[in-house]
Task: structure prediction
Amino acid sequence: MRWFDDLWLKEGFAQYMAYRCLDSLEPDSDAWKHFYEDIKPQAYGIDETQGTTPIFQNISNLKDAKSAYGAIVYQKAPAILKQLEFRIGDQTFRDGLRIYLKQHAYANAAWSDLIHAFDQAGAKNLQQWADAWITHRGMPEVTVEFSCEGNRLRLITLHQHDVLGTDAVWPISNEIYLSFPPRPASAKPFELPRYEMEPIRVDWDRPSVIVESPHAACPAYIFANAGDEAYGRFLLDAKSELAVRENLMKPAAPANGIDPQLLRSQLWGALWDNVHVAKSAPHSYVELALTNLLTERDETLFNVIAGHATTALHFYITGPARTPLVAQFESIATNRMQESDAAGLRINSFHALTGIAETPASRDTLKQLLSGKLTVPGVELRQLDRWNLIGRLISLNDSDAPALFAAEEQRDRSGDGQKYAWSVQAGAPTAEAKQKYFGQYLLAPTDPAAKPEDWLTQSLRPFNSWNQSTLTEPYLRRALDQLPEIKRDRKIFFLGAWLSAFIGGQQSPTAAATVRQWLAQSNIDPDLRLKVLENADDLERTVRIRQRFPD
Result:
């Protein structure tokens, strides 16, 4: 790159080509499924907020370069390259890269050089695509409408709008997957429209597009981003959501032209997206998720579903229905931690239990794990695992937590052990603990009494534990006021950890109002404003979902 405004040229390519090589070298690694599950959500989580930035950022001087590091460069950029290769084709993409690398060998380049190389390789009308995806922030939200006459599909319409509320329209290349109900056993093939077909490719750059209707049966559901080639939020319509919910409990069926395991993961993601935008009830998602977690054999998908269910139970669901769901989740995680035949599933279940444990029964399970009376078959608890268990008990104000903490502190005298011991105590649910730790956070890094920065980072999440927002909300405005000093004095990723913890630990309308009041100031550093807007989105979303779906 010639300058840090094009940071994505190196980082985005490094990420994308790593997955592309892995897919070629180890086809059984499910590289693109992992790309969908691990890479793209981080980009979406920022790109849907008013704090997002374009991939290309105007960096005026070196001291501001660190603001460019984040999910837009490391996660969105590779996702956009995946979309680009799909749009122009594998061979044109390869030829364009060869031209680009040859023209700029042992030299620097800008993103316009890359686009010019693709033009030379034969890509058509790429400048509009590049302007939209590289120089504009945000992403499209795509919805589907379809109608049938009798048993025949009549019409498919795709709609897009900018998630940030502007009138931006994105050039999109995507594939539409149609899932059909079983063919009637008595039917003769010539009497019915097609029941099996390849995904339908669509290239479009307007608010709505009517897709030429194939001679097909009426589908049970339609998903508009088969293969995960496009970038954006692709929602399920009401009919499709019901059909998807019914089909997800079945083994992944062969899907013409696409990876069935990737499709299944995407459909789970689409169900969560409907919750995320307050379109579907979080309670119904958690019920379906728990049913699936009883038998799920896909280790990474288990983690994704368990993580979403935990988020819903910690932030979105607050009424009496929450308690039995938590107990059911604890029971499933405990059972799968002991009984799963795959070590990865046992480990993932252990982590899920650590994150959701709350009732006396599950707290006893955590204590038995610490004492060794209960083990995870074939798995030895790591140092951080043990401290996380103790931290969980501390945050729940368990009566045995002080003694367990003292025993572990005596047992683990290592440098990391001292860091973890100090950090987990930030989760103590007392006003005195919060005052003590926040005072430590305010010390300058050069103060002899200051703790190392990695100690502070480790303690931010326990301090802002999800179940202690009443205790921590009074610190929210002070945490925001501290941002200029943090940006000036701390390392590159501390600012994000600070905001994610202090805003992310809040749930109330009053906390959201506090953030909005801080943002209303006229003299805020523009970069800090964006970072706060980025992190405030989840808080505003929590308030909105609770209002839309009160228990």
Observations:
- Residues 526-548 form the longest helix (23 residues).
- The chain has a mean pLDDT of 94.
